[in-house]
Amino acid sequence: MEIARSLQNVPSSYIREILSAASDPKVISLAGGLPDPSTFPIELMRPTFEGLCDTPEVFQYGTTAGYTPLLAFLRDYLRLPESHAAVVCTGSQQGLDLVARAYINPGDKVAMEAPSYLGAMQVFGLVGANMITVSQVESGPDLLQLEQCFKTEKPKMFYAVPDFHNPTGVCWTLETRRKVAELCIQYDVAFIEDAPYRELRFSGEALPLVSSFCPEHSIVFRSFSKIASPGLRIGVVTGKAAYIEPIVKIKQGADLHSSIPMQAALLGLLKHQDFDAHLDKVKALYQSRYQTLYTALESHIPKSCAVKPVDGGMFVWVNIPECDTFELAKVLLSKGVAVVPSPVFYPDANGQPAALRLNFTNSSPEELVKAVKIFSEVIENFS
Q1: Where is the Aminotransferase class I/classII large domain positioned along the sequence (predicted)?
Q2: Where in the chain is CATH 3.40.640.10?
Q3: How many Cβ atoms from other residues are within 10 Å of residue 19's Cβ?
């Protein structure tokens, strides 16, 4: 049977493929965006999991928008405006898919930074979106390019990860956040704010969500995979009720609702008196891992490479001399280090700057240092 046309031109996920190769215990994987399993708050969730057996109602079908007690809690926890609503999804990745299917027709234009999150590009590709890119600078998107894009291309939406961007780790400045919101309102472009790493800030001052400056023109994705555990598969999409209603309709046809027992477990975790302390421990661990990686990179990589510091998240972006980055990644993998080459983060990979994305959250300090030394030796001799 022939597969759908929408799928025929969508490449398989390079990261999923390399993660399969990197599952070898002899490989140090800096490729994925995996949280450290030691951060999973098993003990904090244990009382809720054990109590689920005494609450049989959570094993029944539920409402599509989500487990009612969790939705009520999230309204206060996320400080949602009165006019806004939420829908719980099976990970924020499903939220991306639902928004794309609810709002994008084949050929509709979607603006995004370049480079951008691979998973978003896959989703937009499946619905036939025309992806328009805007260069990223140290403060966020190039604002002159962005306004020109809005003026001439008239995209339906602008998708971005303002807090600790995947893949570059860039965090937008306050000025950029305000200006992007202003432009979205001025040109009537919906702002799609993906915020999976927002809670993983380990230095600097927290900044407002971009959507807080354009609440009636935005949809926000939040993930609990990084601060609870990926296996829960719980994310939430928020925005004004008129934006959320079509998403709920699509989700009803997709899976009826996300797992109610897992939503109940998340609610118990978020309400636990030690959850804030848990989050502090996660951030402290990741800050330590990041510092180890960054220090090793500064000490060992050739001067022809460059890496910029980050204030949170899970990734650093290393600019390298022009080369075949896929071949470089293969050589590194053969020497026991998995990385992700830059071209996979662009809708059009041709002519993009050579770089590698490195993850620091799921390797020991010793592994991080060893990986950097191997990388430095390989890049020194690679041509």
Answers
A1: 52-373
A2: 42-271
A3: 17
Q: Are β-strands 340-341 and 355-359 bridged in parallel, bridged antiparallel, or unpaired?
A: antiparallel
110 CB-contact burial (10 Å; exposed 0-12 / middle 13-18 / buried 19+): buried
The band of 146, judged by pLDDT with boundaries at 50, 70 and 90, is very high
Complete DSSP assignment for 335-383:
TTEE-EEGGGGSSS-TTPPPEEEEE-SSS-HHHHHHHHHHHHHHHHH--
pLDDT value for 373: 97
Between CA 284 and CA 312 the distance in angstroms is 10
The residue among 308, 287, 35 whose CA lies nearest residue 171 is: 308
Do residues 271 and 348 lie in contact, with contact meaning Cβ atoms separated by under 8 Å? Answer: no
Sign of dihedral through CA atoms 43, 44, 45, 47?
positive
Of 85, 110, 49, nearest to 236 by C-alpha is: 85
In this structure, how many other beta carbons lie within 10 angstroms of the beta carbon of residue 77? 13
Omega within 30 of 0 (cis) for the link into 115: yes
- Give the C-alpha distances (Å, rounded to integers) separating 285 from 39, 231, 365: 9, 20, 10
Q: Which CATH superfamily is domain 5-30+276-381 in?
A: Aspartate Aminotransferase, domain 1 (3.90.1150.10)
Share of the chain above pLDDT 90, in %: 90
pLDDT at 24: 75
**Looking at the domain that runs over 42-271, which CATH code has it been given?**
3.40.640.10
pLDDT digits (tens, 9 = 90+) for 231-288: 999 999 999 999 999 999 999 999 999 999 999 999 999 999 999 999 999 999 999 9
Verdict on whether the full-model pTM lies above 0.90: yes
Q: 130-137 and 140-141 as β-strands: parallel, antiparallel, unpaired?
A: antiparallel
Q: Name which of 294, 311, 313, 291 is nearest 227 in CA terms.
A: 313
Mean pLDDT value of segment 47-52: 93
Determine contact, residues 262/270, Cβ cutoff 8 Å: no
Once rounded to an integer, what is the mean pLDDT over residues 319-339?
93
